[in-house]
Amino acid sequence: MTRPLIIGLTGSIGMGKSTVAAMFEAAGVPVFDADAEVRAMQGPGGELVPQIEAAFPGSTGPDGVKRDDLGAQVFGDKDALARLESIVHPAVARKREAFLIEHAGAPMVVFDIPLLFEKGGAQAVDRVVVVSAPAEAQRRRVLARPGMTEEKFAHILSLQVPDIDKRARADHIIDTGTSIEETETEVIDLIAQLKRIRIGR
């Protein structure tokens, strides 16, 4: 039985990954957004809220998980973080399986995974697409975000595989250092290329 070609979409902070994911979606490619699934499961009435409250008392409220309170309970505590991940990761895996079943007939699907290399998810996809831009464009975008500081930016970068390494490990690179129109053309061309790869499998 043929299954969709699974594309792992990743990129460091401020590289334009969400924009590129939206372009894939607009072109008719189903996109699984792991972060969005987690937000939904931890939001008001979310299915993970009771489990998280049981494991981390006081970390949830009527609006779901209180991110700052939960963050304070797990920050710098490897055991607490592992406990949280043991709740979240299997739930995301179940959502991903359901997504694949739902889109079994599609030529390809995209898994939008920010920490694809950092968390070792590259083995679970057929092709890796890295979204990248020049470092100065990345810095400008990230520092324009509300509440972002040079220190926070440096800390986030220290936790991520460097862009140069991601590019080296990518099957395909989408450059967002250009105009939106040029990036969109790149995405459309890549989709056509990936469809040919799938046919050739």
Question: Main attributes?
Answer:
alpha/beta; Rossmann fold; 2 domains; two-stranded antiparallel ribbon; 7 strands; globular
The H/E string reads EHEHHEEHHEEHHHEH
User: Which strands sit side by side, in order, in the main sheet?
Assistant: 2-5-1-6-7
State the CATH superfamily name of the largest domain. Answer: P-loop containing nucleotide triphosphate hydrolases
Q: Find the structural class using helix and strand composition.
A: alpha/beta
Strands, helices and their partners?
Blueprint: E1 5-10, H1 17-26, E2 31-33, H2 34-42, H3 49-55, E3 60-61, E4 64-65, H4 67-74, H5 78-102, E5 108-112, E6 127-132, H6 135-143, H7 150-159, H8 163-169, E7 172-175, H9 180-199
Parallel strand pairs: 1-5, 1-6, 2-5, 6-7
Antiparallel strand pairs: 3-4
What this model shows, in words?
- About 50% of the residues lie in helices and about 15% in strands.
- The protein is of the alpha/beta class and about 200 residues long.
- The protein folds into two domains: about 1-30 and about 110-200, Rossmann fold; about 40-100, no CATH class.
- A hairpin with a 2-residue loop joins strand 3 and strand 4 (about 65).
- The radius of gyration is 18 Å and the shape is globular.
- The relative contact order is 0.21.
